[in-house]
Amino acid sequence: MRKKKIEWPVAPAAHAGAGQCGLCGREVQHTSRHHLVPREEGGRYGPVVELCQPCHSTIHLLLDNRQLARQYNTIELLREAPELQVYLHWVCRSKVERISNRRPRR
Fold first, then answer.
1. Residue 92's Cα: distance from chain center in Å?
2. pTM of the full predicted structure?
């Protein structure tokens, strides 16, 4: 069975307005700034996008900074990341504002 294609909002701005997540497009109460190229990989002054807490946490749980810098350094590339597809399919239909997923200890 094929999954239904997700309809993304029209290109969100780098600082998506009052509470819109730049990744999932949901209206949320709080967003946080995500550096598309992580600061540790040279993106301190690079482009940023406002993300809801579940999206921000999940990105950093499933992808490391090197992957983010080299493979997924735009919002469009993040939306197409195979590692995020199951999550995005779920969160776009969800009303969740906060999740607690922790990085595994190494």
1. 12
2. 0.76
